Amino acid sequence: MGRVSQPAIAVRDLHVRFGDVEAVSGVDLVADAGHATALLGRNGAGKSTTMKVLAGVVPPSAGQVLVAGHDASTDPLGVRRSVGYCPDVGGLVPRATPWEHLQLSASLRRMPAWEARGRELLERFELGDVAHRVVGGFSHGMSRRLSVVLAALHEPAVLLLDEPFDGVDPIGVEATLEVIADARARGACTLVSTHLRELAMQACTSAVVLRGGARVATMDAGDLTGEAYRALLD
Predict the structure, then answer these.
(1) CA separation for the pair 165, 228 (Å, rounded)
(2) In Å, what is the CA distance from 211 to each residue of 100, 120, 199?
(3) Does 3 score more than 60 pLDDT?
(4) Is residue 5 very low, low, confident or very high in pLDDT (cuts 50, 70, 90)?
(5) Looking at the predicted structure, is the pLDDT value of residue 217 above 60?
(6) Overall fold of domain 9-233
(7) Secondary structure of residue 204 in the 3-state scheme
(8) Smallest Cα–Cα separation from 175: which of 109, 208, 126?
(9) DSSP run (H or E) holding 180
């Protein structure tokens, strides 16, 4: 018999508590290599907290979380090494330039030859002309674009993009869609957290809908019609 491949992301009954607040209350999620999955829901649904757990940034309070075969509870470093993570906010050093951000990321990941890919990504996201400007003066959309570049630089096995389209112009949206398509083509798993249903349908093949910190539906992205989606949120 052939070997059964394991999902790149496998989450069962995830709970995350911050003091008395339960931000995630029983999320189940499976995402496969070579596919892009959308994580959808209103603000406060638990999307960003779930993404932080998958990135190895926030530990799970309960439940099982496996990312590229690494357990987020016992091997968060292994998780962080396997993913490329674009957080919903922050993550950039205001006094550093995009090129310095790329240099630091490449150094931390021990990438010996990264310059050509770094330049290509900056040009694709129309950041080449500002590669040596400090990011403290960047607009929100420019910062979002750079965060996607940094997540994709090392071609990770798991690409986690949290609200990558927020405040981004059409060129940045198109470049992000290309990054997601490239990741799928090379067999990576991509998870995109967003509240923009139309872009989720365009970028992803499947969708997981969260409400109140729990999963309420898993479906094909093409089934996210307006009326059906709104019914899941209410």
Answers:
(1) 22
(2) 39, 38, 19
(3) no
(4) low
(5) yes
(6) Rossmann fold (3.40.50)
(7) coil
(8) 126
(9) helix 170-185
